[in-house]
Amino acid sequence: MKVYDALSNAAILIASRRQAARSTGLEEEEKLWSYILALSNFVHVTGQVYRFEDTLTGTTPTEHPHISERLSAHKGTFARPAVELLLKVLDETPEPEHKQHVLVLIALLNFIADTGQLDDVEDFFINQSDHAPVAIAHFNSHEEAEAWLKSIAKPPSPALILIGDEYHQFWYMREDNTRGMYRDYAIEPALEALAARGIPPQTPSFATRAEAEAWLMSHPANPYTFVAIAGEHYFAVHHRRLKRHSLRHVASALKAWEERKRTIEVETAMESAAPSDGASE
Question: Which DSSP string do the residues of 171-204 spell out, in sequence order?
Fold first, then answer.
């Protein structure tokens, strides 16, 4: 089974179990299922899907799976209760197909533990509202990003990167070694919503971008804030993983976002109007 199919099927199991816990008032169990879902989201946004697939390939399926020693030693809030819940569900589940989905989730938790990322995942889960969309790398230009894209043998995928101040989605299919990237409007919806509420009148003001960046280093956005540079408003985005801020000119970014939304509307309308295969002429 391909890794994307395995994770998709496991996500369906998570949704079902989380809904069942919610409907019966089991709040702690519902939270654990949300945490387990965050594991899958984490490997996706950090470009580790193929790394996880490699661990699945090297694992022999068994109804009594190996559990990472790091899970029992971890002092966080969710990892140990989560694996205990998964083992309980594994024992109680009669259907072989559903057992396989649970085994994938146990393998996922082992992978996170064995690669030393349990604290990162817990922070990702607890503080999701305080995180901007995760970018794994920053490049000053498209040329730098393209050079990296071509040079790295096994690039992380899928993953967001920053080129200058703009998000781009990077993708790689190792089955045929194809790769590419495209502009991604990851923060524009948040910018649009916050700007619609009104930019605060007491926005921090700076003469230059360098001054704004120096101030943001000691006053990090959580994860967004507005600043003024040379009389123009900018949207500051804190990229915690990269230890930097991007700065988007508000008026220009909103204009580009409106143009992008109009393009999507036109494309959607054209797809809806196109005759389906086999339609009579």
Answer: EEETTTTEEEEEE--SSHHHHHHHHHH---TT--
Does the 188-256 domain belong in CATH 3.30.505?
A: yes
Peptide bond between residue 201 and the one before it cis (omega within 30 degrees of 0) = no
Query: Minimal CA–CA distance to 152: which of 42, 47, 3, 44?
Result: 47
Token pair 């943001």 is at which residue? 216
Q: Taking the domains of the chain in order of start, what are their residue ranges?
A: 3-126, 131-183, 188-256
How far, rounded to the nearest angstrom, does the alpha carbon of residue 64 sit from its chain's CA centroid?
31
User: What's the pLDDT tens digit per position in 82-121?
Assistant: 999 999 999 998 888 899 999 999 999 999 999 999 999 9
CA distance 77 to 256: 42
Q: How far is CA 155 from CA 69, 94, 142, 150, 190, in A?
A: 29, 39, 17, 9, 28
CA–CA separation, 135 and 267 (whole Å): 27
Angstrom distance (rounded) from CA 202 to CA 43: 39
How far is residue 113's CA from residue 212's CA, in Å, rounded to a whole number?
38
pLDDT tens for each residue of 3-17: 889 999 999 999 999
Q: How far is CA 243 from CA 137, 169, 170, 173, 220, in A?
A: 11, 19, 20, 29, 9
What pTM was estimated for this model as a whole?
A: 0.83
Tell me: the pLDDT tens digits for 24-63?
999 999 999 999 999 999 999 999 999 999 888 766 556 6
How many angstroms separate the CA atoms of 107 and 5, rounded? 15
Distances (CA, A) of 217 to 135, 241, 245: 18, 14, 8
